[in-house]
Amino acid sequence: RNYYGGNWASFSFSGLLSWIKENQQKTDISDEREDWRKLILENEEAIPLSKKDKTIQHVEDFCFDDQDSAEDVEEAGALPKLPTFGASGAGGLAQESEKESPPAESQEPEKAAGSEPASAMEGNDPEITAEKESSHSSAFGESTLELGKTEAVPSEISAPEPKKITYSQIVREGRRFNIDLVSKLLYSRGLLIDLLIKSNVSRYAEFKNATRILAFREGKVEQVPCSRADVFNSRQLTMVEKRMLMKFLTFCLDYEQHPDEYQDYENSTFAQFLRTQKLTPSLQHFILHSIAMVSETESSTLEGLQATKKFLQCLGRYGNTPFLFPLYGQGEIPQCFCRMCAVFGGIYCLRHPVQCLVVDKESGRCKAIVDHFGQRISANYFIVEDSYLSESTCTNVSYRQISRAVLITDQSVLNTDSEQQVSILTVPPVDPGKPAVCVIELCSSTMTCMKDTYLVHLTCPSTKTAREDLEPVVQKLFNLNTEKETENEELEKPRVFWAVYFNMRDSSGVEKNFYNGLPSNVYVCSGPDSALGNDCAVKQAETIFQEMFPGEDFCPAPPNPEDIIYDEEEIAAEESGFSNSLETKPESSTEECSSGGDTTVKEDNEE
User: Fold this and answer.
1) Which of 59, 77, 170, 285 has minimal CB crowding within 10 Å?
2) Which residue, among 320, 323, 502, 334, has the nearest Cα to 406 in the 3D structure?
3) Gap between the Cα atoms of 503 and 491, Å rounded
4) Cis peptide leading into 225, omega within 30 of 0?
5) How far is it between the farthest Cα atoms of the chain?
6) For the whole model, what pTM was predicted?
7) How many domains does the chain have?
8) Residue 345 domain-assigned?
9) Pairing of strands 93-94, 220-223
């Protein structure tokens, strides 16, 4: 790939159109270079790797505005103008190559090319300032997570009339968009936040609070009170309901201490357990779909109680909701780890395909890879994202799928006094057996979309194609008609300018022994899972690390610059033009990683 992060990446608008075109083309890449087979010795065998990423399927994109007006529009800041292409719902748009900048080898966070809008500080959103060492940063020990600070607009200033957004404007301002392939939020006390703080990778990122939790009930979107202050200030709950809700949430915080309250319902679903509690139907709906966010038909009572407790424990650490969102998109997170790795000698090679793994027949261990140049790269360990594995290696694997949709809209699903809201909404399934749909709506102050627009992500486990799974929810919440076709009842709904649907492979939970013939020193990591948080990825990374280096500390805090020891021989080698690493110990071992579409060569046994 020519961008970081694999299926965790984020793109500008034109970058996403290029990605869509690439995935709509089903042609297999022919192996033009067979010379690499000559590099395999008699006592070795090769495990060929897949030539095409097959983790994305059923890609469909639609434009609900006048596309003809955007034919000759060039994206602002894009130099030079690149060839145009035609695609379903994306005809005649200027193409932009995806993020290509290498990680910055410095202590200052630096956005990759295409990640930060070219004029992000020139009026994209005057209400947001996201600055380092902000007084609004929240500390944990001596580490901080930088939070964007939102300043209120004085009420006496009359708001200007909202500008009419057109598709050509979206194309022109495409670099203001940072559109994630995977939609997730960070639990404020989740494993990823703890890891970012512990490893000090948080220095490379800034975050914004998710400002509200929403519910969809009886055809309407409404805000869910979840913190103590929200509950008591809520006008939608009666005084009796407030007492009921607070009593139940207090029980959930230490439910383990009261097993007699739930042990008779351990074999029941959480929804059935809620019906036995003194809760009104509206409270049951809020707890099930907006607080616990678990399945109505599949999640057990214990799973529901655990999810509710996790939600409540995360409240108040950084704001009134349990969630944070990284400015410039979820795709910033893998790049943050790339930057830290680069500081300590990690080398990332983009646009660098790998042909095969080379296995020693005697030991059964993998000893090298062969790249598309026919070059052998030797290493002791190999980490491979599962999209690299060929079909012959994965014959025993049954993958799940994730249905995804991304929309660009003109207003929020629930308008309030403040336009700068980051919202999460769970839409319950209409038909039994169908999954609930998670909707995350991002405003322009998250640096993921242009001003006066919203970026909306929809996600659910797949039962059919992404469009079949998600379009009914889109039709409930949004107006898909053009302005001329809009009926009166659709006027209040947010209007969709552009949408894309696609299915993404969910390979989480697949054990290594399901893959055929992989050596013991080859480790497989999955792509994103369908969960809202990132715990699965963090657990998987730590598990692989501990298998490789038992007893070592996972992602320790980096040493102070004055404590780093530079090996004189390696400095000499660097001056001779050889690749080398930055060490804190004189002993080193070579490690080769291919993860998420990027190739990493690390020559440091600590970092």
Assistant:
1) 77
2) 502
3) 30
4) no
5) 81
6) 0.80
7) 1
8) yes
9) unpaired
- CB-count exposure of residue 590 (10 Å: 0-12, 13-18, 19+): middle
| 573/320: higher pLDDT | 320
Task: Note the pLDDT of residue 573.
Answer: 59
Range of the domain at 515: 1-25+47-71+164-226+315-555
Q: What does the alpha-carbon distance between residue 165 and residue 346 come to, in Å, rounded to a whole number? A: 43
Report the distance separating Cα 10 and Cα 564, nearest Å. 33
The model's pLDDT over 414-427, given as tens digits with 9 standing for 90+, comes to 998 888 999 999 99
Q: Evaluate if residue 145 carries a pLDDT over 80.
A: no
> CA angle at residue 499 from 65 to 128, to 5 degrees?
90
- Taking the C-alpha atoms of residue 483 and residue 569, their distance in angstroms, rounded to an integer, is 69
Which one, of 203, 205, 125, lies nearest residue 445 by Cα? 125
Q: What's the rounded Cα separation, in Å, for the pair 442 and 531?
A: 18
CA distance 366 to 593: 12
For residue 586 the two structure tokens come to 């004189």
User: In 286-304, which positions are buried (b, 16+ CB within 10 angstroms) versus exposed (e)?
Assistant: bbbbbbbbbbbeebbbbeb
Joined tokens for residue 244: 């009921």
549, 450, 361: which is closest to 176 by C-alpha? 450
Compute the Cα dihedral for 170, 84, 19, 327 and give only its sign. negative
d(CA 133, CA 148): 11
Other residues' Cβ atoms within 10 Å of the Cβ of residue 569: 9
CB 522 within 8 A of CB 366: yes
> Which CATH number do you get for residue 501?
3.30.519.10
591-595 and 382-385 strand pairing: parallel
34 within some domain: no
